Amino acid sequence: MLSTDQLPEGLQKVGCTPTFDEKTLPAGLQKEHVLPAGRWGLLHLFGGGVWFVDEATGTETRVAAPESLVIEPERRHHLRTDGPLSLRVEFYERKG
């Protein structure tokens, strides 16, 4: 589910973005993109908030610090900012 910070069991962390603020958030995260099959994202908000926009449904979910949001593989989405923020995305995959 999008509104949880619980990843499925059996995933291992395989990478992480730097911590971004509203000035350094890459344009690529602010336009439509997708995680490949088998790769999960975990969006962590450390300050402020951001909107997670699901491209398939048009649903906009507000994520505010200190919340986290699970991003499922192959879910087309983008982030929309509306003020100060601090966030990072971790990436997970099933290993073995």
- Helix-strand category: mainly beta
**Overall radius of gyration:** 13 Å
Q: What is the CATH topology classification name?
A: Jelly Rolls
| The level-1 CATH class | Mainly Beta
Give the N-to-C terminal Cα separation.
Answer: 24 Å
Which outline best applies?
globular
CATH architecture: Sandwich
**Any low-confidence stretches, pLDDT <50, length ≥5?**
none
CATH homology superfamily name:
Jelly Rolls
Instruction: State the helix count.
Output: 0
What's the story with the biggest beta sheet? 7 strands, antiparallel
Mean pLDDT: 94
SSE pattern: EEEEEEE
Count all strands and give the number.
7
Counted up, domains total 1
Description:
- This protein is mainly beta and 96 residues long.
- The protein has a single domain (15-94), classed as Jelly Rolls, CATH 2.60.120.10.
- It contains no helices and 7 strands.
- It has strands at 11-16, 20-21, 39-54, 60-64, 68-71, 77-80, 85-94.
- Strands 1, 2, 3, 4, 5, 6 and 7 form a 7-stranded antiparallel β-sheet that branches.
- Strand 3 and strand 4 (60-64) form a beta hairpin.
- The radius of gyration is 13 Å and the shape is globular.
- The chain starts with 10 loop residues before the first strand and ends with a strand.
